[in-house]
Queue: 4 jobs
Job 1
Amino acid sequence: MIEMVDNQAQCLLLDYRNCSLVDFAEPYCENRAPEMLSRHIPLSLFYQCMIRKLLARFRCTDLDDYLKTRAMQSQSDHLGGLFADAGIGTVLIDDSVTNSSEELLSASQLAQLTNLKINRVLAIEPVLERLFVANDTFDQALRNLERTFDGAIADSAQSNLKVVALKTSLANGGLALEASTVASARTAYHPARKEVLESNKLGRTAAYNYMLAQVLELAIKRGLPVQIRASGDQQATLVDVNNGNNNPLAFQPVLRAQRYADLKVVFLNSYPFVREAAYLASVYPGVFFDLSLANSLLAPDLTRLYYEALSAAPYSKLLAGTGGNSQPESFWYGAVCLRRGLSEALKELTEKGYLLKAQMEEVERAVLRSNAINLYDLH
């Protein structure tokens, strides 16, 4: 089994073993409504398949039995077993989630509990929020921006966690990033700062747009790829399909700008815009993408999605990500489904003459491991 680099993951719950059937279903639905989690998600085909695989793997009679079984295991034994079974060796984790009412397992704690190689993805918006709070004026914030981000990276290194990428939600405003002048950003700064002070939330303003542009340039200087999660919700969310701006094609003005010629970006959770993300990856040297949560939530359709991705994009541009969060089984099932979908897509491409049989392992290794190692400098 090729050891996988999980390019996209969030935190586990600290006490994930103490959960109800509804809690267990949370990673597998965009809508946290109790009726969806208790009544409808258990009737989803991908979810039922996951439960059957879990019960067979742990020799349990039903989900209640499984939850009792894992509750009796130590966290290290349970987590180690799941990640080893899924063939996950390295995880890139964003542990900046602040909108959860429950205590979360940090990246450092996960590293201590497992044999995983853990690297941190530094979320841009929380750092910008701290920057806005700490600086009364736009000019002060602009002067301190680079120092603030470098400080966050250094703090992570002191915790033995290397920051290998930055990550942005684009302040939940979609992928069409408007250019802002210094004058407009300066004018917008005080209202934007007031919003952060009152709501702890950074909105999509001219001040934000200008600062983000500076961060993208800083990412280039520091050699850090920027992951883009257009939906913005740092909990498990595929994409707000009603917002056309979440189409990766809307980000093209940034990709075309000369100032960002050396920027490397990763479009996360590309569904339902797999074809568009793959197209951009086929045109721009610095564009990469993954399917993340689709690996679990669209498991029955994964072969087609990977076939579509590999039909349009060079296989050097496709990354593996589980979108795992909250419950460790979401990492496990995402990886299991990813491997199956990718393998079946490669077989189809081989049968149709687009891929040599001798190349199959090379492509599989690239997607599961090598591409991420090269992009994030994980050597």
Job 2
Amino acid sequence: MTMHLLRPLALFLAAYSLHLGYITVFYHRALAHRAVRLQPATLRFVLATGNWVTGLDPKAWACMHRMHHAFSDGPDDPHSPAQAGVLGVLVAQLRAYERTLYGLLGRHPDYLRHVQDLDFPVHWLNRHGLWWLPYALHTAAAVLLGYAGGWGFGLAYFAGLMSHPIEGWVINALGHAVGPRNFETPDDSRNPWLAALLIGGEGLQNNHHRFPGSARFSYRWWEPDAGFMLCRALEKAGALTIDHGRLLPRPGPPVIPTTQA
């Protein structure tokens, strides 16, 4: 019985970690904020595989996230609980992603201006209307795994790899509604500790909105940020370079925060 439960759990954690690594390191800290610089080979790998792994277009994700920072908790924020309500963020973020993707495909200036520095196109899957293909392949893989190893096995794979809607909801809704604040910011960003623990440091929204250019989201030593730990490991492996000059400072004498998003 123990092994029957441990195997699906291990598969879920592996799939979840793979997905989260793409989102928090490659999409968020690298593409959206330039807090880390991907080596050319790493960038090519991410652009080639990211949409297949996550089901999300790298350029559209980065664009939507930059719009979130530009309009945080205001009327034009793509996914704010101040506008959509805590529960409504789950739907708002999906609709915002769709609008962003089609805005980029249609070369709408309201979207293009946020990603002028990203000199790569929307992924070919989305340019050819095949956005559904990664989801179909992951569904097929989950069915095969379920057939071979039990349905819990297949469900663990799919739930781990396709977890972004729930991750996004927790961060975008609770990260702007509940939890403490280390810094005064113009928005209502907060630091729900449990969300940060479970989602690679992404729950430290108040810290991140105060220092958006920092690859490290933790301010106090006990704030969990597994995403930055992964950045450091990948830097040692030669896959990327952290912009150490823009790291969020630790508590101490007053400093001038970075403002570059």
Job 3
Amino acid sequence: METSNNPRRISRSKAILLVGLALLVVAGGAALISIRVLKTTTGRSHPSVQVPTNSTSAMFGFDLQHTHFNPFEHILSAINVSHLVSYWKVSTRSYILSSPTVANGVVYIGSNDGLLYALDAKTGKTLWLHVAKSDVGSSPAVANGILYVGSDDHTLYALNAATGATMWTYTTGNAIWSSPAVANGVVYVGSNDSNLYAFDAVTGKVLWTHATENFVSSSPAVVNGVVYVGSEDGQLYAFDARTGRTLWIAGAGLAIRVSSPAVVNGMVYIGSEDRNVYAFDARSGKLLWLAPTGGYIHSSPAVANGVVYIGSTDGKLHALDAQTGKPVWTAFTGASIHSSPTVANGVVYVGSQDYKLYAFDARTGTMLWSYTTGDAIDSSPTVANGVVYVGSWDGKVYAFHAQSSPDKDVAPHSPPRTRNGASSSGSIMGAFALGFL
């Protein structure tokens, strides 16, 4: 069943009821709320799967162009992807819309329990948690040791990626569903207060803002000194990355809701709620082609090897010729697709509202593998170093790899010892205003 509503289906109040709070601890004269960290239960180690220290994926869409294409993946392929099995699972306290970012051996992902999770990429062990005051549906970006993520509490957070300690925050006028992009020392992110923001990445100083006429839930791409972003006013915007000056505005029918631009070979691709995929000239904003689908588009396009891949609420993954927009193939899932596809080594991965994560042959559209989670998947998969990571509405973060061995499931345990400075940083403890309850 297709819907024009935003895919955030559950109320904030319900999500809050799912948040697990431990005891109120008084230490050093400060009242702190302790959040229980999740522990990996018994499971064998998996020495054949290596997740190196250096990451190849550090933001939503994989890169600043938002190609959703990982050209460095050489472990998983169309030949062995059918052998994917569960590597580990981590349970959060609410549903997950955020997409995982993998950097320096750590998986970062938000949950609508109001927490940002930092998980060991090999084991799923929780390294640290950071508390926001509301849902974290934005996907993290990591650059130069700092993690950036938005929240429904209207705030953009800049955190130490190694510890979760707060570097700086900025409160906008509404929820942040947009996922940040970091380029040349500047953080760009949209807000549902209808503005696109540019911040100094180190200090958090606002460098410029630019207003649109509706929510900016789309995530910006930054290419050749230009920031591209959609708005729910139905327009695709191109701004000068340094000054915020408008370079061009192009219409895309109805609202651009969550779908984010991909910029490849001088062309900008994006989906719209008018059911079409659009391609614009990146320099002028001239419409080059549009391709119809059978449903609203909340998915963001992936572009690889001359093909654009995008999901639609018609339940299909569409593969289109990047130059002409002509169909290459379509693949059916059992329900609407809000998840954005990821392409790696000849395989396209995407989640569906039918609860399944899919892997399709990028050339033919043949389904190679699927896995059924406990609820819909709006989170967009990330592939890094032979492992596929994704979140689900069932509140779990999943990791899959091509090795047949027992998985590691994560379950609650007693509160951890606090890190030095955790009480003031908001990592693991603190930062929960009582009004959040």
Job 4
Amino acid sequence: MIVALLTLILHYLRPGEAGVLLDGFLSTLASIVATLVVTTFSFVFVALQLASVQFSPRIIRSFFEYDHFSRFFLWSFIACVGYLMSLQYFGLSDAVLIYPKFGIVGAFYLILLVFPLFIHHVVDNINASSITQNIAKRTINEIEQLYETNGFQQNPSDKVLIINQESGYLDSIKYKKLFDVIPEGNRSKIVVKPHVGSFVLAGMPLLEVLIDNEEDRVFFEQNKQLIAAQFIISKFRSYEQDIPFGIRQLVDIAIKAISPAVNDPTTALNCIDYLGNIIQKAALSNTISKEAILLERKNIFIREFNFEQLVDLAFDQIYHWGKEDYIVVRHLIKTITNILTFVTDSSKLKVLLAEVEDMELSFLQEDYEKVRSECPFKKAEHRNSLREHLSDYYEMAIKRMEEIGKDDKKLVSIKKSYERNLAFILKNRE
């Protein structure tokens, strides 16, 4: 319809001159459209081949079988080429006719609008999240067609639940709009149930309201849809409000880099450096976000990741998969040592100390002959290198505990233990 309307407008504004043929113009457009089709699908098939190796060979079939837009793109471009060539073959390329103008407008429509949309569509659909979501949706549709679904409702008498309507990731929350929706003087406690970035099933509560009075109950019952609209559900996680998402990506890159199939420790070390940068910023930041402070003014409480969860997410898996590579372990110790300098809170200091303790490096504080079986590092130079970085860590940790942990009994106890460990390491280098 759009192409037909634009063609009529063009034909009215530029009727053309009799005897002027548009063969050259039509041939050029036909070759451009054909080249786009061939080139695009060459890249698409390569991308699908790579995706099939990484995920499953069965996704190639579903790419065309269930993807209507891809089929439309392919056949519309082929039809356009056929139409432009047929105009020349049947002698319908005179500028005074409307047929070549229809072909020209249609070709430009496909090149300038449909082609960019198709590229975006392919990039989006080859993403792992899109693949898994599409598989789940098709499977759920089959379940709904084949079986009767029992309804499930949560109706607690003392609460009002704002229910999620579509499964997906909680991409973000419109905090300021949510704040504006809730009336001033609200006395009912409002608890946001999922973290931003978490997967929320359809039917799960997004928000739980502990009703204080009947007036509040009426308000929340009447405004369920308005409140639910402030929660953005998507098939992807994003950086907006989702701090762990960036950490998760760096950890994934690091884990893949140290895997035997890739064996790229330099990339893993680069990821650890930037994870340290993120954790350093978290260590310097308030544990409660600006949005949480704003919402608490209206008795709204949101769930947020704390410092300990961010540190565990950043370092635990990398250590688990790289604990037999002394360079990875050494770099983790070095990174945490660097972060200690910026910690001004005793609770955050304990988190970082616990992270190193969880690495179970006690074999470095023993005679190697006694711990030969449990020590993964068989070369003395590797053990000495680790001891050197561990001694730097102990020195910095002791210094920080003296500065901010004098009144904390647990930190005082850890400090004494670290002083003994440091003395042993300095005296017993191999």
